[in-house]
Amino acid sequence: MSAEQNADAVYDVIVIGAGAAGLMAAITAANRGRKVLLLDHAKQAGKKILISGGGRCNFTNLYASPENYLSQNPHFCKSALKRYTQWDFIALVDKHQIPWHEKTLGQLFCDHSAKDIVNMLLQECREASVKVQLRTEITAVQQQHEQYRLTTSAGDFRCDKLIVACGGLSMPKLGATPFGYKLAEQFGHSIIPVRAGLVPFTLHEHDKEQLAELSGVATDVVASNQRTGFREAMLFTHRGVSGPAILQISSYWLPGETVAINLLPDLDVQNWLLEAKTSQPRALLTNVLSQQLPKRLVQTLARYAGWPDQRMADLSNAAIQAIAASLNAWPLMPNGTEGYRTAEVTLGGVNVDEVSSKTMESKLQPGLYFIGEVLDVTGWLGGYNFQWAWSSGWVAGQSV
Question: Over the stretch 247-266, which tens digit does the pLDDT of each residue have?
């Protein structure tokens, strides 16, 4: 039965994508009396929410602010983040009596399960009379008579306002596709080139072989480049390096660049080793370093960097200076990243200069809205991307 024959197929608002941003937009619009249809090709709503934060969903960050986001236009995210804040989302979580805790650096997690957040959003959808329709493939979107017509595997639907919330390319196993970008381009939008963000680094074959035995070892570092730096844990893997510090710096890394890893961020290693030369002259260099770093890491780095296997008293000051430099600024040259397969986010996306920061509506196509990860706005690791989803989704829901 076509949309013309079936009045139920006409909606005020259709949201494409039942992830964090899409759910928030649908709820907000429906709470304002709009008739809303939420479409997704997945079998389950909020799939990315469910696996996030190790299954506990790092749903926002106490310190979320525009400075925590990357975009070609860093001002774009300010309005939405100011109008729907982390405190607004925390209030929603508290309303549903979901217990949560702060982990580190302002990161908020559910005490029990990420399912609590998905269930909360679906309950809000039910209470607001949002029609959530999953397992639905969209094959075409057209504009006809100031309405949008969607041809889908479940029939045709029409709407006055269309919200695109279908995310980026990260985690294709969860169903990520370039659909949102193609739809944007269909209506005249440009796409800022996309790449994997918040993603582990891979290493060149020689480095990978030399460091392979460190797989599973984690240590507190500062990972930095010329633009920024992050202090958190770094984890060695069988392919390269990961952990929060690496994921963070990966969003600011470009191929061919070196990342400086400070393995002892609280120490001036040169002064410390010179003091140890006096206070522990008979101690081996590796034993002294093992007072501050995991022993396995010290032994492997000593072989990798060719440090002399000597007592402190026998080390020249020049040797100590070189060892200190490699520990306070180990130059790591990634071979690349693990790509979208393990990336938490997609950098780039729909050009935000072509979208209203106040409403999320296209400046090129009336009635068309873009929210969440499909836009060229990417947050840091630690709940910032969820906050962007809630904020941009709420703004669009208020506008349609």
Answer: 999 999 999 999 999 999 99
